[in-house]
Design brief:
The protein has 140 residues and is mainly α. The chain contains five helices and no strands. The longest helix is centred in the middle third of the chain and has 35 residues, at 35-69. The chain is elongated and about 55 Å long. The protein starts with a helix and ends with a helix. The chain binds protoporphyrin IX containing FE.
Length: 140
C-alpha cells in the first residue's frame, strides 16, 4: 500500500508542476506582442499541456486504487475524502480550462488580460492547500 501511496504522491506532484507552470506561460502570452516570442511560448505551452495530461492519469488512477481497491476512506466517518474528491473534480475542470484558454491563444482569440491570468494562476495553490489539509489532517 505504501508503494502505491508513494507513486500517487509522485504523480500528483508532477501533475501540479504543470498546473502551476502552464498558467504562468499564459500570463506571459497575454503580455507578449512579438510574433517569434509568442510562437515559442505557444510551443512550450502545448508540450507542457500534453505532458501534464499524461501525468494526471496515473495520479488519479492510483488515488482511486487507494480508495476503491485498498479501501482507505471507505465507509462512514470519511467526509475528508468526499471533500478531497470535490477538489479533485475542480482540479480536473481547471486542467481542462487551461487547455481551452491555450486553444484561444493558438487561434489568436484571447481577450483576457495578464492580470486575469495572474489570479487564475492562484487557483491550484488554494485547491492544493485544501486537499493536503483534508488528506493529512482528516478534519472530518
Ligand atoms: C480521484 C482522485 C484521488 C483519490 C481517490 C485519492 C485518494 C487517496 C487516498 C485514499 C489516500 C490514502 C490516504 C491515507 O492513507 O490516509 C491518498 C493519499 C494522498 N493523496 Fe490522494 N487521491 C486523489 C487525488 C489526489 C490529489 C489530486 C492530490 C493532491 C492535490 C492528492 C494528494 C494526496 C496525498 C498528499 C496523500 C498522502 C496522505 C498521507 O499519507 O497522509 N490526492 N489519496
Amino acid at each position: 500500500m505504501l508503494w502505491i501511496k508513494a507513486f500517487h504522491i509522485l504523480f500528483v506532484m508532477s501533475w501540479f508542476a504543470g498546473l502551476f507552470y502552464l498558467p504562468r506561460i499564459l500570463v506571459n502570452l497575454a503580455m507578449e506582442n512579438e510574433t517569434s516570442a509568442t510562437e515559442r511560448l505557444l510551443l512550450m505551452a502545448r508540450k507542457l499541456y500534453r505532458f501534464m495530461t499524461i501525468l494526471a492519469v496515473p495520479a488519479i488512477a492510483l488515488g482511486l486504487y487507494l480508495w476503491l481497491v485498498i479501501g482507505i476512506g471507505k465507509g462512514p466517518g470519511n467526509g475528508w475524502l468526499h471533500g478531497k474528491l470535490t477538489c479533485v473534480i475542480l482540479l480536473i475542470g481547471y486542467h481542462h480550462a487551461c487547455g481551452s484558454l491555450l486553444k484561444k491563444f493558438e487561434q489568436g482569440k484571447n481577450k483576457r488580460s495578464h492580470v486575469w491570468f495572474r489570479w487564475f494562476n492562484e487557483v491550484p495553490v488554494v485547491l492544493l492547500a485544501i486537499v493536503l489539509i483534508l488528506v493529512v489532517v482528516k478534519p472530518f
